[in-house]
Amino acid sequence: MTSHVILRVLSKLLIPLIMLFALYVQFHGDYGPGGGFQAGVIFGAGIILFTLLFGLDRAREVFPPRVLEILVAAGVLLYGGVGIAAILEGGNFLDYDVLAHDPHHGQHLGILLVELGVGITVAAVMATIFFQFAGRGRTDD
Amino acid sequence: MLDLVHLILFTFLAVIAVAIIRLKDLFAAVMLMGIFSLLSASLFTVMDAVDVAFTEAAVGAGISTILMLATLALTDSEEHPEHNRFQLLPLLAVTLTGAALIYATYDMPRYGDPDAPIHQHVAPHYIEETEHEIGVPNLVTAVLASYRGYDTWGETTVIFTACVGVLLLLGGHAVVERFRRRRLVEPEDEP
Q1: Which of A86, A134, A79 lies closest to B159, judged by CA?
Q2: Looking at this predicted complex, what is its ipTM?
Q3: What's the predicted TM-score (pTM) here?
């Protein structure tokens, strides 16, 4: 991939913008279209573009598979943790009203956190699955 | 005007679907499936379902296409059918199923009909009460993450499970190797 200068330069410009856009979609989901799932997929697409350009070995250094595996579980746990936190605060599972003094603030906080959990899991899953496909048939892992 | 846009998009969808079935070159078929997803996304946008369109464009046209291409790189990009001869029974089965599905659409409410059953159950509550109960401007997010938070929790678990499945199937070799290495390092106590 060393010869594709135009692709490399353009993608170096694009990848940060793609990831920034993913974060925008993630945290603007309350106000516009989007949310954790879409943001996670866009962020995963950024990682995949990086892998396509710079190779699997570089990508595994930047996004270590062990860390990705932990993130896959961490997102689901964050979502479930918000649900458990609501129970501990005296509400039902995933009832965000009790998370803050004002029910609206609680709802905002709850939605933000569970969407973050979805985003983390989806991004890590997309990257992990692609790494698995791309690394298939290699003997070094 | 809107009907014309719908008609054009649906015609394109049908043409691409037939092209995908007839193509022997799987690489071209994967590209056409990406275009199919992008057209579906446009259709969802025209129908004011921007959140769904967003997902379709990102997942269907983006990630799925790349995963399909990665699969083709591992296997073969040319289709090799077992037999090419004409078969009556499968044709009859799909024709009958298709006819039954089209017949069933006559019982469906018209697109955008306010009296449709789906608009009579919980939808009015969501539309009227989201502002007071949730306080989030995007109705879709409110339904997805709060009213139906339990369902979304299930979906996240499904994605998690899919990842575990892929890791076990494709990364199984690495797991076995890791296990073997540990066995070799650990001393055997029993004689």
Answers
A1: A79
A2: 0.88
A3: 0.84
